[in-house]
Specification:
Chain lengths: 244, 644
């Protein structure tokens, strides 16, 4: 390969990579992150996007260069050089992707195990999904129930989720959590919220006619405010408690 | 060979007493018109008798009636009526049959395309025209979906109708367009490429085509009774117990399309293994043949699984079994495991034949041998093997055992390697070539760039932490359209343009072809790229209503999608006018080396006057004096016997 073509290829790769990077950075791709798990997941997203931009830049550069440089005139009836392959090159483009996907797998494995590791004082909340409503109940407050999910900031929360009819799913984009709720099973979600606020809580598995409306909110309160809220629920539910 | 012995078989046909009688009793649509209701009535009677005998109200509860009479018996009657079973019926009842009967072979007029025909070339065209029809139907449904989504809130359709629009859209595109369109192209091309006179089982080939319109009409007609609205994935228990009767139209439609797929795949396997011309070793087969060989392996092994999942789901609906409802001891995730054990390999069933088309097109229009031929074939095999070990990556958040996510993630990421090898090898094939940008090559380049984006978003989805955030959002919708539209559909267009001269004997209009490409390429990207952003921001799929903050992008996408829809009109106009009035095509307009281009356009009725002798690789562009095959080996031998 001539030196000129290497320079041209590098230039094209930089342009393609630059365009791809601009597409990745300029629009807002992700909602705010409101849990510790979300921060780690965002890291994986940007890590993989960086790799994708790298690969896209190489492919785009080679393709654009070929289209510009190797275009034949319509009356040119000659054939190209009879190159049948190149073992070294073929080994290279098998080996490098192997290394890349291994790296991605390792990073993902670490993030998964970190995200599932619970804190010392885990709060348990029971979630019941049915067409087309949510019910959240708090064993720490005599099983008081609420149509919205209240969570404490900075504390490990484990959801125990059940469905009464078809499959639903628990999705809070700001937490980067998604888990199906399957009739006959108890599925779990582990979240450590770290940003007070109110976030949409969406059913994310087609569950019938009212699927689009099966929405509520997740409210993250600072620890003191949450304890106060929990105590109020416990008191309100004292007479009817211990049933669930 | 046929001209001199024309129609000696007419003697064996039923005695001709009068034209009306021949029409009524001879194979064709008229016989189908009375045989379908007749068989439907028989099915109806059986169900009513069984219910009466069992002490139930004989007519109440219409599901089993509609299923047995309408979805099973009547289609069998239709098939019998058009004559798909005639030969086998005669054989079974001891009537005289003629194994060498070629009266149903070839097409003299357009009418022959509406008959049961055993010619692989006719069947290939029948497949393509039928699948393009369902492509248009599925595309219209998609445009209705986009019309509803142009603004937040509910505009035109109630939730039930909206849900059925996208469910039927996906089912038609997958089962009635992409999978069978590839089967159609391969039907036409593979026997020719192998140097064979036809497929191994021509009558089975005809039958497998005629199952398709039944499957498609079944899915479309479900709108009459309340269409299925559980998504093309038909997850239980939603689809098995909470849906209108249209759900069983989906269940049963998948059975007909699946049966068609399995029969065709068996036919390809036997054809490729046993009917290669002398000298056509496996390592001399064009990559399109390799691609259809590997695809057929996938189809034969995987398709019975979706058949099982749909039968169980339908039994839950019709007979109140409890395969997938926990109340009766069933297991909802069982459905997903069985379904994806087919439906992930199905992704490769929809991709590998396209890879084959790309290898042919890129090599021919770059005027260079395919780069790394053996590794290209081996990576197809690697995809087949790995393709069966990744199904649960559709279920990372399904509630299955959480440890299972990790091995499934590793295999999913690994499958990017053989796919990457193919992309890099195509790029290397183009490198230093003499590129001719005819329409098929433009679609090939469009495919390469779109498929790279789809592949990279696939790597992102394969990484479990990312999938946890974007699963069931528009990011997934964007990804599947980049691989199935930017990937498969672009390769189908490339294939149709590439073999159009061979199929019709006429050239398509190059300028309209290029216009079609650019409209499709731009419209496609404007429609589907913004969906990535919607998805990561948290807009979920399969909803008619969405938060107002997504309104701007959705309006943009809807407008772009109408432009994309309009681009199909250019394609249709080009195909129809060129087929009728196009310039007469030479035998080999692309100067290709594979065998189908060495015979006339369109090919003679039995493809080759003499079975060719294959002597080398099909991609020896630029090698002086290289030959793929000797077309008339007996003549060549005579020449050689002259002493040197």
């Amino acid at each position: 390969m001539r030196r000129g073509s290497i320079v041209a290829l590098l230039g094209l790769a930089l342009i393609a990579g630059g365009v791809a990077a601009a597409v990745a950075l300029v629009p807002t791709w992700l909602p705010v992150d409101a849990s510790r798990q979300a921060g780690r997941i965002d890291f994986v997203i940007w890590f993989v996007i960086a790799i994708c931009i790298f690969i896209f830049a190489i492919v785009a550069a080679v393709m654009v260069y070929s289209v510009l440089r190797f275009r034949a005139r319509p009356d040119d009836l000659e054939d190209g050089p009879p190159i049948h392959g190149h073992t070294g090159l073929e080994i290279t483009w098998t080996a490098i992707p192997f290394v890349i996907v291994t790296a991605i797998a390792i990073v993902c494995g670490i993030v998964l195990s970190r995200n599932d590791a619970q804190g010392a004082d885990t709060l348990r909340i029971n979630v019941t999904a049915q067409q087309f409503t949510w019910t959240f109940s708090y064993p720490e407050a005599n099983n008081a129930t609420s149509p919205e999910l209240f969570l404490p900031e900075g504390r490990s929360v484990e959801l125990y989720m059940r469905s009464l009819d078809v499959i639903h799913a628990f999705f809070v984009p700001e937490f980067r959590t998604n888990e199906d709720i399957v009739p006959g099973l108890v599925t779990n979600v582990h979240i450590t919220p770290d940003r007070p606020g109110t976030y949409p809580l969406i059913c994310n598995e087609l569950c019938g006619l009212g699927h689009a409306l099966m929405r509520t909110q997740a409210v993250v309160l600072p620890p003191a405010a949450f304890d106060k809220w929990l105590a109020a629920q416990k008191k309100a539910n004292a007479s009817t408690g211990q049933k669930g | 060979m046929t001209a001199t012995t024309a129609n000696p078989h007419d003697v064996h046909h039923a005695p001709v007493r009068g034209p009306w009688r021949r029409h009524l009793l001879g194979p064709g649509f008229i016989r189908a018109l009375w045989m379908a209701p007749l068989m439907g009535g028989v099915g109806f009677g059986i169900v009513v008798l069984c219910r009466w005998g069992g002490g139930w109200h004989p007519l109440l509860l219409s599901e089993p009636l509609i299923l047995v009479a309408g979805l099973v018996a009547a289609p069998v009657g239709f098939l019998g009526g058009i004559g798909a079973f005639d030969y086998w019926t005669r054989y079974a009842i001891g009537s005289p049959t003629q194994p060498e009967d070629h009266s149903g072979h070839g097409a003299q007029s357009w009418k022959d395309y509406f008959r049961v025909n055993t010619d692989h070339k006719v069947i290939g065209v029948q497949y393509l025209v039928t699948t393009v029809f369902f492509f248009l139907a599925g595309g219209l449904l998609a445009l209705l979906v986009r019309a509803e989504l142009a603004k937040p809130g509910i505009q035109y359709f109630g939730p039930q109708t909206y849900n059925s629009l996208f469910s039927v859209h996906a089912s038609l595109m997958i089962f009635l367009f992409i999978i069978p369109a590839f089967a159609g192209l391969a039907n036409f091309v593979v026997p020719l490429m192998l140097g064979a006179g036809d497929m191994a089982f021509p009558r089975l080939n005809a039958l497998s085509f005629w199952l398709l319109p039944i499957a498609g009409l079944m899915m479309l007609s479900s709108f009459i009774v309340g269409a299925f609205a559980g998504g093309w994935t038909g997850y239980a228990p939603l689809n098995s117990t909470h849906q209108p009767i249209g759900a069983i139209f989906f269940n049963q439609g998948v059975q007909w399309a699946g049966a068609s797929s399995i029969m065709t795949a068996l036919n390809f396997l036997v054809t490729i293994i046993t009917m290669r011309a002398p000298g056509m070793t496996f390592w001399r087969m064009p990559l399109l043949v390799w691609a259809n060989f590997t695809t057929s392996l996938l189809v034969v092994i995987a398709t019975p699984f979706i058949a099982g999942s749909q039968f169980f789901s339908m039994f839950d609906h019709v007979m109140h079994t409890a395969f997938f409802t926990p109340v009766g001891g069933g297991y909802p995730l069982g459905y997903q495991h069985i379904f994806w054990f087919y439906s992930h390999p199905a992704v490769y069933i929809m991709m590998l034949p396209g890879f084959g088309i790309m290898s042919e097109v890129i090599s021919v229009f770059s005027r260079k041998p395919i780069f790394g031929y053996r590794l290209m074939a081996l990576s197809l095999m690697a995809i087949v093997v790995l393709g069966f070990s990744v199904w649960a990556h559709h279920m990372f958040t399904s509630g299955m055992s959480s440890w299972l996510r990790v091995p499934m993630m590793i295999t999913t990421l690994l499958i990017a390697i053989p796919t990457g090898i193919k992309i890099f090898s195509w790029l290397a094939t183009m490198w230093e070539g003499k590129l001719h940008f005819k329409t098929p090559m433009l679609f090939a380049l469009g495919f390469l760039s779109m498929f790279v984006i789809g592949g990279l978003s696939g790597v992102m989805l394969g990484a479990v932490p990312i999938d946890i955030h974007v699963t069931d959002t528009y990011f997934v919708v964007a990804h599947i359209h980049y691989v199935l539209f930017g990937g498969s559909v672009f390769t189908i267009f490339a294939g149709i343009y590439y073999w159009f001269p061979k199929m019709t004997g006429r050239m398509y209009d190059e300028r309209l072809g290029k216009l079609h490409f650019w409209l499709t390429f731009v419209g496609f990207n404007l429609t589907f790229f913004p969906m990535h952003i919607l998805g990561t921001e948290g807009m979920i799929r399969r909803v008619a209503d969405y938060p107002a903050r997504f309104a701007g992008l959705n309006m943009f996408i809807s407008l772009a999608s109408f432009g994309l829809g309009a681009s199909v009109l250019v394609f249709l106009y080009n195909m129809i006018t060129s087929w009728r009035f196009g310039e007469i095509a030479p035998a080999n307009p692309w100067r290709a080396m594979t065998l189908e281009w060495q015979v006339t356009s369109p090919p003679p009725i039995f493809n080759f006057d003499e079975i060719p002798q294959v002597v080398g690789s099909p991609y020896e562009y630029g090698v002086p004096g290289a030959q793929h095959a000797i077309l008339a080996p007996s003549k060549a031998r005579e020449m050689e016997e002259v002493p040197v």
